[in-house]
Amino acid sequence: MRKKTTRFIFCSTGLSILISCTVLTRKPLPAEPNTYPASTGLTSQFPDASAVFLLNEARVELNENRPTLVKRHIAVKVMNKRGADYANVTLPFGSDSEISHIKAKTLRPDGRIVRLNQNQVFEINLFPDFIFYSDVRAKRFSMPAVETGCILEYEWTQRLPPQANIPRWNFQMQEPVLQSSITVICPRELSFHFAIHDQGIPVSAQTDPYRQYIKYQWNAANIPPLVTETAMPPMEPQTSHILFSTTNFQSWKDAGNYFVRLSGDRFKADDSIHRMVRNLTENLTNQKEQLKNIFEYIRNSIRYIAIEIGIGGYQPHSASRVFLNKYGDCKDMTGLLIAMASAAGIEVSPVLLSNWYHGRIDTSVVNISQFNHVIALATLSDGTEIWMDPTEKYEAFGNLPWYDQNTLALKAGTDPVLQNTPVDSIGRNLSTRFWSVDLYEDGQATGTVELRFTGAHAIELRRQLSGIRAQEITAWFGQELLTLFPVSKYYVIQIAHINNLERPLTINSGFITNKIAFQNDDVLSLYPGSFSAFNWPRLFPNQDRQHPVVLRHPVSTRDEILIRYPQSWEYLTGSVSDSLRTPFGHYSWSIDQSEHGTIHFKRSFDIRRSVISPSDYTEFVRFLSSVSSGDQTLIQFKQSQ
Q1: Contacts of 377 (CB under 8 A, 6+ apart)
Q2: pTM of the model
Q3: In this structure, are strands 505-512 and 445-453 parallel, antiparallel, or unpaired?
Q4: 338-385: per-residue pLDDT in tens?
């Protein structure tokens, strides 16, 4: 599974995807378009919307021993051509559930109604590529007679297993919503928990006990669309929503014990695993060195393949099966690591987490489906803890990839407990760029550049480079880096340490520029940004901010440009510098002449806070602008008389 989409163990299958973000009701489809009088006048009210959800309903009937019944109902008005995408509908379901009673129609602007024919509803495999093995399928159809101004209306019924967990209900969407409601009917004796996160949007709640049931209903109206911004947090936690749990878990310890029970004896080593462990640890007495060899064997030899069949979305396969097949998903690879470490006498526990892409879990509701990944935590005999993610092929032993860091995780060993995963020091996510430039009298230049990357930067680049053939490296280098360093041509590109994960990934190249310095009479001038522009201010052009700025990880960059100019010219700018220390980070830059014919430009930039609140946004942008001021310092030379 690709990291940019997250690895799934729970949220891609099981119940959470089955009724993800749509709705139901017992009411029949309305017979006439004027059932939605509020659908008029929306163009002036929402001029930028692709579509407007007129109605988004769900009704869930929970049962202790009978299937859970879910009914959904949606009506959405198409505002323009972009909104026509909402006519393509996908309704996922798993092997333990079914979808029926699909009814759909298009209410045209002229008052005519065009109904969906049942023979236009198809069944597909939902994850043909993303998850290699999956029993999650979907009903799919496209609404008929779609045009701007029409209303798309459809409903369906879904049957789920008894006491099915209800996934989060999102009131807010990327388009305006006029009315959103969810009703849950629950037996009194059934465990049922929920937590409302209204995010400033009023949500009315009503509870009606009757007979042996309790009816819960939540409603919200006139919900604005979710605003998307650069570097915003994962989207779902920012929306107005409700979290549910229908399990009997009273604590996160119960959830951890549930995963342990599901795992059973699947983390035990068989004879073949024991033989491999002996080979890997032979002549090694240090536990850390033994664990390093075991971890690197799994990381390098076991292919990551997502396997999501029934309970397999939660339950790992046996370590012996994973070892034999040489593939598995995150919980399978972690299980094999636990088995092999145990064979060497090293304690390793599984850890459930929600990684950066998925968002931080909400502890107010104990729901194991909030986690989407499994990693490992070793405790050596001297008490040393070592966190490991064997699925990340481009991270060295002893380090967690950035997307696993600083998140709330559930250690599911003998004593399950929630704890935060560690965070790298800022200096580990370091990019350094060294330029050696020969500047000529006509304003052109030649030189060399060396780029070094560690931590998160190295992981992302190694992943890109792993899929590129050697003869394509030059083209890749140009496409990826010419936008940052606008010189005209790179040549003799060398890349070192792609596979040596304990060394910085290093790229060396020569280059030739077009004219980067301009001449006025006998003065030659250029800007440092001609070689190494600081582009961060371009990422945040807006003056205000609705969501926090959430950076993936702390950032540290170092730039150094050595410029050799003709001996017949005189350096005019002199020594200039600036520096600033703020709560967001630090920077410094300087330009000075080390000797005649040579000048140095240096820049150091660190972002130490990865979350910037909207109230601090203006100061954060001002800080970035200050850093970029060094790029605008004019470096000048005058031809000697």
Answers
A1: 348, 349, 351, 385, 386, 387, 388, 411, 413
A2: 0.85
A3: antiparallel
A4: 999 999 999 999 999 999 888 888 898 898 888 999 999 999 999 999
